[in-house]
Amino acid sequence: MPEMKNIVKHNFSVGRKDRNIQNGHKSFLLWFTGLSGSGKSTIANAVERALQKRNVHTYTLDGDNVRQGLNKNLSFSPEDRTENIRRIAEVANLMVDAGLVVLAAFVSPYKADRNRISEIIGAENYVEIFVNTPLEECEKRDVKGLYAKARAGEILNFTGINAPYEAPENPDVEIDTTELTVEEAVTIILSKIQSKLAYTDE
Ligand code: ADP
User: pLDDT for 46-79, tens place per residue?
Assistant: First the structure.
């Protein structure tokens, strides 16, 4: 652990509540978890568009983008996957503090890592959306050609093929994209977060 004893947190006079009031809505994190190709990015994108239409301030964090920048020094080993998720959760925490509704689309296969996100950001600010599309369907779509590569042994640690996915037991929302359209998924998610968005002076 690096030396922390001389780091003292400063209390700034403008806080999250001020920013929530200014924006006219609360801020929190929508975390999409599920297999590669399950539909996380597609649904997150459509939810963000719907929120934008309602004048909600948003930002999307996506696996591929983050891995090209902030986390480009991390691999897909279990330790690095854990560090990947920790950093993303810390960034999301700053963005939620900045007043944004953050949408994060990451495979995030380990239950312990997802629990840690909830701890970092606070359970009341964490909405877990399990995009539960069957592996066979994800593999059939093979959007990025990665399942074929994993089956051919060209990718090690590929979730669903040669690395585990620990399904959420109690997600806030569960979506099977073989049963729901993107629009239906958006409607379900929006209705789930409607009351969380509203700013009421407690
Ligand atoms: P992930 O972000 O989970 O890796 P993507 O969103 O990149 O997945 O890819 C999901 C693919 O599945 C897209 O090509 C999308 O068009 C397709 N798809 C088909 N039906 C649906 C649906 N009902 N919901 C979401 N995606 C769907």
Answer: 999 999 999 999 999 987 789 999 999 999 898 9
Question: Is residue 201 domain-resident?
Answer: no
Model confidence at 41, pLDDT cuts 50, 70, 90, reads: very high
Q: What is the pTM of this model?
A: 0.93
- The 10 Å Cβ neighbour count of residue 145 is 8
| CB of 159 closer than 6 angstroms to any ligand 1 atom | no
Question: CATH number, domain at 117?
Answer: 3.40.50.300
Q: Is 39 in the pocket of ligand 1 (CB under 6 A)?
A: yes
How many domains are there within the chain?
Answer: 1
Distance between start and end Cα atoms, the chain? 38
Does ligand 1 have an atom closer than 6 angstroms to the CB of 40? yes
Is 62 domain-assigned?
Answer: yes
Closest CA to ligand 1's atom 12: 39
Is the pLDDT at 5 greater than 70, yes or no? yes
Q: Which atom of ligand 1 is nearest to the CA of 45?
A: 6
Nearest Cα to 90, choosing from 109, 117, 62, 125?
A: 117
Residue 186 sits in which domain range? 16-133+166-194
In a domain, 101, yes or no: yes
Q: Is 23 exposed, middle or buried (0-12, 13-18, 19+ CB in 10 A)?
A: middle
pLDDT score of 7: 83
List active site positions: 108
Average pLDDT of the residues in 166-173: 97
